[in-house]
Design a protein that fits this description.
alpha/beta, 8 helices, binds zinc ion
Amino acid sequence: MKRFCFIVLLLSLSLCTIGESLGSLITLHKNPLPADCTDNVKAVTNKKYHNEIMQIEKEVQGLIQHGLPELCGYSIEINVFKDPVDLFRANFKSYLQVFKTPHKRIYRIQVNTQWLGDLPPQIALRAVLVHELTHILSYTQMTTAELIELGRKYDKADFQRNYERNTDLLTLRRGHALGLLEFRKWQKSHLSDDEFIKKMDIYYSIEMILAWMKDNPYI
Ligand SMILES: [Zn+2]
């Protein structure tokens, strides 16, 4: 039962949350991956928000092709969910996926219907998607036991803060500092003061991003 709870916890992680952003610039590789590299990145169409979902699918495919070659060939489904504070989540199509080998799993990025009609600007959207894809990349590098352990530990504040800020840091290093900054501004204008303060206790705050940019002016 306890093990089952861990798995359920893992699946309900809002591992990404409104993410971070960055967007700004995609880290362009000199030799982009072949187009079929992202054939397995598919959005589940949504009648009301078809265009927005397709935009997210296109962004995810582009980010992998031009900046995240490590995810080439992995299956990623994009669909919707509802939540009061998170814009995106990165998880799995079903709990059974964690028992498969990394290349046979179906990973998933979910976007909150609450904001599908009011998405962040593209630079911020790309940054938060890189944050989510960085989570998925970490999942591809984990065994079943490690994923279950991640789900168990994620509930602990210190672990969650460390895991999310490290994911932010990897996003910054991929060249999305401006986008992440824009995403924080978007979050600040779309969340209550209390919700935003709670978020900033877990993720890189605006001040932290600005300090990182000052220390890393050439990234
Ligand atoms: Zn996250």
